[in-house]
Amino acid sequence: MRAFVERELKLDFGEGFALPELPGEPLEPRLFTSTYYDTSGRSLAGAGITLRRRVENGVSCWQLKLPRGGNARAELEAPGGPVGPPAALAELLSAHLRHSRAEPVATLRTRRAGVRVVEDGRTIADVTLDSVAVLDAGRSAGGFAEIEVELVEGDDGDLERLGRTLRKAGAKSSDGVPKVSRVLPPPRRLRARKHASAVELLRVMLADQLRELLRHDPGVRLGDDPEDVHRHRVATRRSRALIRATRPMLGD
Q1: Can you give the pTM of this predicted structure?
Q2: Cα dist. 187→105, 235, 241 in Å?
Q3: Is the distance from CB of 158 to CB of 192 less than 8 angstroms?
Q4: What's the pLDDT score for residue 167?
Q5: Residue 74 in contact with residue 89, Cβ under 8 Å?
Q6: Which of 238, 234, 251, 250 is nearest to 206 (CA)?
Q7: Could you please report the per-residue DSSP string of 2-62?
Q8: CA 146, CA 162: separation in Å to the nearest integer?
Q9: In 3-state terms, what secondary structure has residue 140?
Q10: pLDDT value at residue 124
Q11: What is the DSSP letter of 138?
């Protein structure tokens, strides 16, 4: 299984936009199809986790993306076919898959072209234009386009600088959500109504902590970032505190 930290910036652009001249070499054009998976309750999307199977040039692989701070996400990749995610990835998602198996929720076909930015002998980032078609039974059912800037050897300063250059050329800021979220928005967070009852407020607060547990559980199992363990422990302590505080009202 291949694992690395992906740090990227997403931007939108309008009709007639063209990449400005950037130092480096053109990237080889690519065409790939990505089928995104989630549970019946959309548990992965609710936790900010992406699971997909990508097919490119006849080669199939599964990719799992876990949230990290800022523009970063941990990406894990393993070969596998259409039956289901490889065991190494499925084990990381045990908290999500315990009630429901992962099933396809959307399929996107992406045409990608762009530039690998190189400055002073250092490979900074890949800047790409992605043209994305939403597939329905193999046919296009609409689409969208976006710019991705993914760091290679660059740092956050390089990411910000490239973002400014692209905005000056006409690109627009975006909310940076994964491609699948532009087609299938994640579930809405549970929110308390005005003048909500104590029970409703408790339900909302516990749902928030459950979301944190599910968000960081795969990272705890992976064991590569102590921040996941910290966040998981905080959510556990807060959940227990809420349960203790409300026991006189709700009982055991």
Answers
A1: 0.91
A2: 13, 20, 26
A3: no
A4: 96
A5: no
A6: 238
A7: EEEEEEEEEEE--TT--PPP-SEEEPPPEEEEEEEEE-TT-HHHHTT-EEEEEEETTEEEE
A8: 15
A9: strand
A10: 97
A11: T
